[in-house]
Fold this sequence. Notes:
Elements: E1 9-11, E2 19-24, H1 35-44, E3 53-57, H2 63-73, E4 78-83, H3 93-100, E5 104-108, H4 110-118, H5 125-130, E6 137-139, H6 148-160, E7 167-172, H7 176-184, E8 192-197, H8 203-215, E9 220-223, H9 235-249, H10 258-267, E10 273-278, H11 284-287
Parallel strand pairs: 2-10, 3-4, 3-6, 4-5, 7-8, 7-10, 8-9
Antiparallel strand pairs: 1-2
Helix pairs in contact: 1-6, 2-3, 6-7, 7-8, 9-10
Amino acid sequence: MSFKLPSPYEPLDLLPGVDLWIKRDDLIHPVVSGNKWRKLKGFFQTADPSLPVLTFGGAYSNHLPAAAFALKHFGYAGIAVVRGEELAVDDNAVLRYCVSQGMKVHFASRSEYRELRERGWEPTPEQRARWALTDVQILPEGGAGEQARSGTGEIWSEIAAIHIPNHLVIASGTGTTVRGIISEMPTRCLTQVHVVSAVRGAHREETLVKMLAEEKNIKLQWIDEVAFGGFGKGRAELAPLAMRFTEQTQIPIELNYNAKVWAYLQKQNWNGRVCWVHTGINAPQIRGAS
């Protein structure tokens, strides 16, 4: 399975009178789709292949299976710490897939996981002993971190090589992808960035993104996730919307991120060219893994 880069950039004739385009990062790879690959690429540019990689996520994480595949593909040993000490590897297809790719999986309580996040993902000596860790490289939850900026910044470079849109619209969880894009945009770029947060009340992420946009004198609008009740919520409203979109376009979108972008796009009055960055989907072969 090869990586399709640059990803396709296509007009989308769905909103009357709107010059809408979609950046198809969902087509980059069947498993390492969208911004998951963009963030991992930056990590691999500086990683040491001789050292195992320690990463983190929830039991239904999109990041963990993508990391498991990519680490195996590029010859790295992978270790995952999963949030929830009550869990086991056989609990779901995501964890089974990670193990099938050679990733070792350990579990941490929710309070322990929260403390790891607060420490910048650095395990304590006790945790290192419990999980049999020696020298490891840290890949933060979701592939976030400074190393992700170079990979996610390429999204803007690929778009700008075709045209400079008036508006760029993108879903966000940790804010890592949008910070990478803004970092690559020129100072005083006339493109207005619209960030549709998949998470309600992501104030820290909002602050970091807005600070960067202000430094570069780029207009930015942050849309907090209140319309559907927060991350993982509003499925009854979003599912038919996503289904109709896919029926019309043959482009799959999932409910936590890009279905919310599509809902936002339909409610605005747009002037000029609009670019929607499709940040990827869950791999169907993982969802159905045995």
